């Protein structure tokens, strides 16, 4: 017989979290073409942020980061995403998870997601490409609106969905 | 305790939640050995699936809840043993195959469990090869599981479990969505496994498909074991409250006082004919209820349709339907039945031919307009529920197309016996109740044609009997009805007219008896005539001494 | 064939090189090499499709940099962004996500991480099909669901059934995983990923070249 370090119930819980992550990733990748719509010059895709909020609340920060990372890997592998999908998703997911853990409210997760994706991700993305700026600073504010539009839409949709599903007694958190 | 029992339950009780008023399972005593081919049956919601989940420890480890009493699997106490330590002793397949296949290829699917066991590479290859060989799915090795047909998915799942070399194999409703050909194949496989010394446990509602093979039957009623023993003995004198439908052969045998009871209708073939008994035991066949002189509500004219560059999906379909008529479209898995329904609603457009509903050509009409005249209930009711109460759910369709008739809605609630659930959340209902909400919602806008896709799949005897009554009542009001099914027993008692389909073509259009009387036609469609029809035919033609 | 981990290390080397390249001529040259590799892999069509998606973002980014700094910096920014994302396009075009995950598991990545990657890939088409089925079921009742702002108020009719079923799917997937021994420790692997001599050679060569170029040319 194999010896498991986890108790039987913990091991089941681990499988459950893995399965939720699988399904959330699938939603993130599959729904993107349905829900992206243009705002001005940028094409906005709220699905990523929607999934981030769900993952942060249901699974916690680490699983949320993993979910966002896998979505980025798959979107890259399918040729529908770029390198920027990594910082664009993972930072928000992490902050959303932490915020929810600290405050225990869905709106906190949404705020974390908006701060992470709208505020910090552009900075990191800019750092990623900073070498090409040859030491010249550009106003990061200029990058903000395109990130912010989609993250606000997605995070709010995520909060709505969570409330709806809780009211319908489908999920508990 | 029986010495060679692999699963032993003593005074077992279970609740999913502490606050449940009544235990879901209540005082169960059960021993299952590797020699058993056990059929578990009982009404919908009686606790069959719940009982199965205990056999490999999913209850209590995965579901939580309150488990009382003792359960041992292979001598291990279930409470202290994780699912990971039991999964290869009691291998389990659940109701829906779609969510149970998660690997990239069929091979990988079979290998997954072996990797979990930590078996070394050469042994993995050997077990993989023998599982594929045993189930006969060599041609599927590299296919993606998600692209397979329903029957093939079940075969792959069984192969994946077989490779684990389990002591007992548990299958929860493996036949629900399968046509007779696939059912026969899986039944044959299970018989072989049983003969090879593997215990088999099957949950099933349609007893005629499982009783002939089973060596033992357990009836669950309200969480208790109501009967446990030889299937034929139990079915000779079933309690009405259990909600069972004994196979025709058993009922005839009991009525004739035969001992031993016949296993299949084959066993009744040689006895002296009693056609009168058959008619007395099964409900009357439906009349052909067409009022002469009324124009057809639906006319499909030489319809052909193809998907991209593939072979045509539908070829030259021709049919008419009158008010008050009930038509059954029958055919095997993949015959194109659902595809035809999708065309009636405009979800798919034909390449050739036309569809007229109530005198109007649907042509390029938007789906939301066609929806006013055709009410379609899809196979899976979960796809449509999004409101918080049953009543809102039924009203939302007519509201969307501006066609709301409050009196009619109230009438529908009564007809489908939904009034007690009016303010419950639809997704919290049982499978049968959900189906009834979906049917009511398809009728809510007073469509001219009502179409139901696989209305009886996975439903218990009560549901099937009630549905027949609902449909007959609608028919007498002049409703035109189409049902799509491979449940021929239900189809022959509900619809006076059949449309036989195979490979996208119409093979026949006529009375059920006329169609079943042509064996060549039936085998081309991959279907088998019903027990009632076959036995009657043998007896009437004097073919019974064969 | 090279091990997926080798490809990952090579991609990181190329990424570093591109990120540290200052001379626009060199940047163009590196990009050209990448495009040649793409053509050799027979991925040109997919690359062009991907480029079209990327162009608005690049123009936007380059434009802002030009506007706030100068034309040269703007060009470098756009070109650099293009080249570095192309490196990873090549990387992802050259591997199967499943191989990447499984090989990393053999280097110590927790198995659930790799499992999420491979299993999610199987469920993407399932979710798309489900979304389509929900849209059709609602249309059949006269509820219109088309992409765009107009049917936004009908979105719950898509999202609620989809999410409810997604969570039910997750529950039964978890159950099925348990029933196939997902939680058991001591997993073995049918396919072994081994870093051979060639792999180490390629890694050393690739990184060596990058270091040399960074020290003596591209900056
Ligand atoms: N996960 C769950 N949480 C709470 N209650 C549940 C759960 N699963 C089932 N039940 C309840 O337990 C009872 C028995 O359900 P179970 O699924 O075992 O019935 P069943 O006999 O398999 O029915 P069917 O023939 O419809 O599959 C039902 O009343 C059901 O509502
Ligand atoms: N959009 C499509 N593109 C290609 N093939 C399709 C499409 N839709 C259906 N098919 C194929 O057409 C055939 C008929 O499918 P359909 O769903 O109508 O069968 P069915 O008779 O309803 O079967 P079942 O009894 O299993 O529900 C199947 O082989 C299916 O794979
Ligand atoms: Mg069940
Ligand atoms: Mg069908």
Q: Which class best fits the helix and strand makeup of chain C?
A: mainly alpha
Distance between the termini of chain A: 35 Å
> What is the total tally of β strands of chain C?
0
**Separation of the first and last Cα atoms of chain C:** 33 Å
Short description:
Chain A is mainly α and 173 residues long.
Secondary structure layout:
The complex is a heterotrimer of chains A (173), B (546) and C (219).
Chain A: H1 8-35, E1 37-39, E2 42-44, H2 47-59, H3 61-77, H4 85-103, H5 106-129, H6 144-167
Antiparallel strand pairs in A: 1-2
Chain B: E1 5-15, E2 25-33, E3 37-41, H1 48-55, H2 58-61, E4 66-73, E5 76-77, H3 83-86, E6 90-93, H4 106-117, H5 121-135, H6 150-162, E7 168-172, H7 180-195, E8 199-203, E9 216-221, E10 224-229, H8 231-236, H9 248-256, H10 275-281, E11 298-306, E12 312-321, E13 326-330, H11 337-345, E14 352-357, E15 360-361, H12 367-370, E16 374-377, H13 390-400, H14 406-415, H15 431-443, E17 449-453, H16 461-476, E18 480-485, H17 488-494, E19 497-502, E20 505-510, H18 512-516, H19 519-524, H20 531-540
Helix pairs in contact in B: 4-5, 4-6, 5-6, 13-15
Chain C: H1 4-20, H2 24-40, H3 44-68, H4 71-93, H5 97-106, H6 111-139, H7 155-179, H8 197-216
Helix pairs in contact in C: 1-4, 1-8, 2-4, 3-4, 5-6, 6-7
List keywords for this structure.
heterotrimer, B: about 550 residues, alpha/beta, six-stranded mixed sheet, 20 helices, about 35% helix, globular, C: about 220 residues, mainly alpha, 8 helices, about 75% helix, binds adenosine-5'-triphosphate, binds magnesium ion
Would you write up a description of this structure?
The complex is a heterotrimer of chains A (173), B (546) and C (219). Chain A contains six helices and two strands; from the N terminus they run αββααααα. Chain A has helices at residues 8-35, 47-59, 61-77, 85-103, 106-129, 144-167, and strands at residues 37-39, 42-44. Chain A starts with 7 loop residues before the first helix and ends in a 6-residue tail after the last helix. With 546 residues, chain B is an alpha/beta fold. In chain B, the strands form four sheets. Chain B has a six-stranded mixed β-sheet, sandwiched between helices. In chain B, strand 4 and strand 5 (76-77) form a beta hairpin. In chain B, helix 5 crosses helix 6 (150-162) and helix 13 (390-400) packs parallel to helix 15. The longest helix of chain B has 16 residues, at 180-195. The radius of gyration of chain B is 24 Å and the shape is globular. Chain C is an all-alpha fold and 219 residues long. The interface between A and C is large, with 61 and 71 residues. Residues 337-338, 453 of chain B line the site of one magnesium ion. One magnesium ion is lined by residues 48-49, 95, 172 of chain B.
């Amino acid at each position: 017989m194999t010896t498991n370090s986890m108790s039987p119930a913990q091991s089941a819980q681990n499988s459950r979290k893995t399965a939720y992550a699988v399904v959330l990733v699938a939603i993130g990748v599959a729904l993107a073409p349905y829900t992206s719509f243009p705002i001005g010059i940028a094409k906005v895709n709220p699905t990523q942020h929607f999934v981030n909020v769900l993952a942060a609340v249901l699974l916690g920060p680490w699983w949320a980061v993993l979910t966002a990372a896998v979505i980025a890997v798959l979107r890259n592998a399918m040729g529908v995403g770029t390198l920027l999908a990594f910082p664009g998703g993972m930072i928000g997911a992490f902050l959303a998870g932490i915020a929810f853990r600290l405050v225990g409210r869905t709106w906190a997760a949404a705020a974390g997601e908006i701060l992470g994706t709208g505020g910090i991700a552009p900075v990191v993305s800019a750092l990623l490409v900073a070498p090409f700026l040859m030491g010249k600073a550009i106003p990061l504010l200029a990058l903000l609106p395109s990130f912010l539009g989609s993250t606000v839409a997605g995070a709010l949709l995520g909060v709505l969905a969570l409330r709806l599903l809780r009211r319908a007694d489908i999920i508990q958190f | 305790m029986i010495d060679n029992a692999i699963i032993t339950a003593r005074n077992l009780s279970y609740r999913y939640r502490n606050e449940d008023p009544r235990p879901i399972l209540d005082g169960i005593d059960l021993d299952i050995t590797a020699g058993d081919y056990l059929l578990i049956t009982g009404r919908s919601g009686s606790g069959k699936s719940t009982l199965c989940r205990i056999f490999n420890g999913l209850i209590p480890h995965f579901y939580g809840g309150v488990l009382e009493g003792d359960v041992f699997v292979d001598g291990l106490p279930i409470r202290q043993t994780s699912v990971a330590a039991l999964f290869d002793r009691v291998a389990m397949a659940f109701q829906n195959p779609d969510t149970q296949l998660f690997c990239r290829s069929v091979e990988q699917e079979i290998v997954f469990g072996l990797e979990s066991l930590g078996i070394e590479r050469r042994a993995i290859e050997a077990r993989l090869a023998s599982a594929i060989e045993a189930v006969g799915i060599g041609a599927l090795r590299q296919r993606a599981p998600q692209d397979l047909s329903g029957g093939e998915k079940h075969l792959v799942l069984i192969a994946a479990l077989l490779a684990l070399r389990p002591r007992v194999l548990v299958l929860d409703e493996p036949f629900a969505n399968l046509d007779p050909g696939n059912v026969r194949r899986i039944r044959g496989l299970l018989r072989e496994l049983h003969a090879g010394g593997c215990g088999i446990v099957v949950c099933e509602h349609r007893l005629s498909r499982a009783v002939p093979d089973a060596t033992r039957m357990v009836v669950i009623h309200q969480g208790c074991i109501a009967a446990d023993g030889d299937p034929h003995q139990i079915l000779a004198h079933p309690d009405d409250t259990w909600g069972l439908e004994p196979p025709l052969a058993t009922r005839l045998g009991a009525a004739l006082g035969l001992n031993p009871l016949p296993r299949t209708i084959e066993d009744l073939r040689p006895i002296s004919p009693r056609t009168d008994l058959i008619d007395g035991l099964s409900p009357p066949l439906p009349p052909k209820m067409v009022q002469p002189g009324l124009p057809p509500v639906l006319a499909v004219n030489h319809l052909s349709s193809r998907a991209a560059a593939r072979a045509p999906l539908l070829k030259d379909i021709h049919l008419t339907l009158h008010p008050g008529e009930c038509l059954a479209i029958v055919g095997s898995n993949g015959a194109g039945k659902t595809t035809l329904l999708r065309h009636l609603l405009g979800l798919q457009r034909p390449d050739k031919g036309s569809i007229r509903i109530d005198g109007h050509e649907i042509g390029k009409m938007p789906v939301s307009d066609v929806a006013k005249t055709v009410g379609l209930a899809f196979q899976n009711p979960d796809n449509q529920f999004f409101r918080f109460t049953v009543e809102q759910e039924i009203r939302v369709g007519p509201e969307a197309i501006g066609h709301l008739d409050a009196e009619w809605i109230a009438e529908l609630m009564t007809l489908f016996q939904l009034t007690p659930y009016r303010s419950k959340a639809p997704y919290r209902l049982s499978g049968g109740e959900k189906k009834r909400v979906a049917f009511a919602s398809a009728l809510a806008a007073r469509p001219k044609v009502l179409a139901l896709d696989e209305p009886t799949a996975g439903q218990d005897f009560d549901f099937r009997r009630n549905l027949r009554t609902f449909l007959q009542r609608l028919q007498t009001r002049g409703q035109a009805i189409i049902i799509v099914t491979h449940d021929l027993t239900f189809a022959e008692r509900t619809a006076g007219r059949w449309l036989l389909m195979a490979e996208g073509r119409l093979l026949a259009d006529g009375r059920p008896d006329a169609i079943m009387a042509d064996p060549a036609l039936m085998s081309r469609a991959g279907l088998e005539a019903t027990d009632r029809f076959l036995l009657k035919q043998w007896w009437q033609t004097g073919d019974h001494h064969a | 064939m090279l091990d997926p981990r080798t490809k990952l290390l090579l991609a990181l080397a190329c990424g570093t090189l591109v990120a540290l390249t200052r001379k626009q001529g060199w940047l163009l040259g590196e990009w050209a090499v990448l495009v040649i590799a793409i053509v050799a892999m027979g991925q040109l069509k997919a690359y062009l499709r991907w480029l079209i998606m990327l162009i608005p973002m690049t123009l936007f980014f380059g434009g802002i940099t030009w506007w706030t700094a100068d034309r040269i910096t703007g060009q470098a920014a756009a070109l650099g962004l293009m080249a570095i994302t192309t490196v990873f396009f090549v990387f992802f075009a050259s591997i199967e996500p499943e191989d990447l995950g499984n090989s990393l598991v053999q280097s110590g990545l927790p198995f659930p991480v790799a499992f999420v990657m491979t299993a999610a890939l199987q469920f993407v088409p399932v979710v798309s099909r489900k979304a389509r089925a929900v849209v059709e079921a609602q249309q059949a009742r006269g509820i219109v669901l088309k992409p765009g702002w107009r049917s936004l108020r009908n979105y719950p009719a898509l999202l609620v059934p989809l999410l409810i079923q997604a969570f039910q799917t997750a529950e039964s997937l978890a159950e099925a995983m348990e029933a196939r021994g997902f939680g058991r420790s001591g997993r073995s692997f049918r396919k072994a990923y081994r870093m051979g001599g060639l792999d180490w050679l390629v890694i050393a060569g690739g990184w060596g070249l990058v270091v040399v170029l960074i020290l003596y040319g591209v900056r």
